[in-house]
Amino acid sequence: MTGSLVVAALTLTLLVSCSVAIDGTRARQGTGTCCATLRYTVDPAFGPSEIGAVEDGIASWAIGTNGTACTIRDDVHYDVAILRASSRIEISGDDPTDWPIHVGFYNGREGHIWIVSPDLTSDGLADCASHEIGHAWGLSHGDPKSIMFWQLRPLIRQEGAAPRVTPEDADVFNQRWCR
Ligand SMILES: [Zn+2]
């Protein structure tokens, strides 16, 4: 994918707006067939358990869409870099206005997904990675049952709903990429 643009973010308690545009691989329709592929790399600054959570969140796209959203870890040729911030101020370079309220941030211009992992539980870290990848797909914020809800999702966690990417998210993804 190329041409990603704009910024988006996930916050613990406050909202953010986002709009993203992406040109991507448009392939076949159909369940189980990739409609778009996103290549990512993961910052080695994440610890092993953090990387596990990040990978879990990213994998939820393939699971939740039944394979129409494809992600590939590629540390050489990648669309987005998942970067670890040890505090929110570290993301202020990419997010100069709202960094104090963000625990995750997607900067499409730079291809950066920032995650302030010390401020997140393991589930929150996975959800945050999944949410920001959603922005990298070009998706905007969705309703409270969506991984694309603008807050981390205490409601869905409490309901025990899995996978992180919901049918609603899959529908939005498929509408964008599988037609
Ligand atoms: Zn967001």
Structure, described:
This protein is an alpha/beta fold and 179 residues long. The protein is built from 4 helices and 8 strands, in the order E-E-E-E-H-E-E-E-E-H-H-H. It has a 6-stranded mixed β-sheet. Strands 1-3 form a two-stranded antiparallel sheet. Bound molecules: zinc ion (ZN). Residues 8-10, 16, 18, 131, 135, 141, 150 line the site of zinc ion. Zinc ion (ZN) binds next to strand 2 and helix 2.
Give a quick summary of the entry.
This protein is of the alpha/beta class and 179 residues long. It is built from four helices and eight strands; from the N terminus they run ββββαββββααα. α1 (48-64) crosses α2.
CATH topology: Collagenase (Catalytic Domain)
Q: Under the CATH scheme, which architecture would be assigned?
A: 3-Layer(aba) Sandwich
Small molecules bound:
zinc ion
Query: Mean pLDDT, as a whole number?
Result: 81
Q: How helix-rich are the residues, as a percent range?
A: 25-40%
Number of helical segments?
Answer: 4
Order of helices and strands: EEEEHEEEEHHH
| Overall number of structural domains | 1
Radius of gyration: 15 Å
In percent, how much strand structure appears in the residues?
Answer: 15-25%
